[in-house]
C-alpha cells in the first residue's frame, strides 16, 4: 500500500490552470441537498394516532438541476441552504403546521406539493435565465416514511 502524498504546492489559477478550463463540460447535472426542520401537526378525518397532536423531525431532500456556470458549478450548496431556510424552514420550523400552512390536511402528500410550489417560485427568482430547476423533492415524516415528487409528475 502506498503512503498518501502531500502535494508540494497548491494548484494556482492563472498559471497551473486557466479560467477557461474550470468549466469542464456543458451538460445538465443534478445536485442534491438535505435539510431538516421540526414541527407539530395533527390530521383531520383520520382514524389513527396521527389524529392527535404530535411532532416530527422532518427531512427534506431537494434535487435541482442545471448546466454548470463558468466555474463548473450548477448552484452553490450554500445558496440552496439559504433558499430552503428562507422559503420553508423560516415558515415551518417549530410551528404548528395546521396554523401556518394553507388550509389543507397536513399530510406529507399535501405538504410536499406546497413545498414544491414555494421552492420552484424561489428557484426561478434565484436562477433567472440560468435554467436551474427543481427536479425531485422528498419529504420524510419519519426515517422510514416519506412522500416524493418529481418534475414530470407536476405537469
Automatic annotation (TrEMBL):
Task: Indicate whether Zinc appears among the record's keywords.
Answer: yes
Report the protein name in the record.
6-carboxy-5,6,7,8-tetrahydropterin synthase
| Catalysed reactions listed for this entry | 7,8-dihydroneopterin 3'-triphosphate + H2O = 6-carboxy-5,6,7,8-tetrahydropterin + triphosphate + acetaldehyde + 2 H(+)
Keyword Isomerase applies = no
Q: In which pathway does it act?
A: Purine metabolism; 7-cyano-7-deazaguanine biosynthesis
The EC number on file is: 4.1.2.50
Q: Which UniProt keywords apply?
A: Lyase, Metal-binding, Zinc
* Family label: Belongs to the PTPS family. QueD subfamily.
Q: Which domain of life is it from?
A: Bacteria
Amino acid at each position: 500500500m502506498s503512503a498518501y502524498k502531500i502535494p508540494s504546492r497548491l494548484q494556482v489559477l492563472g498559471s497551473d490552470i486557466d479560467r477557461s478550463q474550470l468549466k469542464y463540460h456543458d451538460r445538465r447535472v443534478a445536485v442534491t441537498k438535505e435539510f431538516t426542520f421540526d414541527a407539530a401537526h395533527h390530521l383531520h378525518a383520520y382514524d389513527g394516532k396521527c389524529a392527535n397532536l404530535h411532532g416530527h423531525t422532518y427531512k427534506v431532500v431537494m434535487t435541482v438541476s442545471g448546466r454548470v456556470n463558468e466555474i463548473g458549478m450548477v448552484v452553490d450548496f450554500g445558496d440552496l441552504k439559504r433558499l430552503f431556510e428562507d422559503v420553508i424552514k423560516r415558515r415551518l420550523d417549530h410551528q404548528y403546521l395546521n396554523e401556518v400552512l394553507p388550509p389543507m390536511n397536513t399530510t406529507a402528500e399535501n405538504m410536499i406539493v406546497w413545498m414544491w410550489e414555494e421552492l420552484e417560485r424561489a428557484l426561478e427568482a434565484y436562477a433567472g435565465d440560468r435554467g436551474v430547476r427543481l427536479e425531485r423533492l422528498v419529504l420524510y415524516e419519519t426515517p422510514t416514511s416519506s412522500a416524493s415528487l418529481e418534475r414530470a409528475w407536476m405537469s
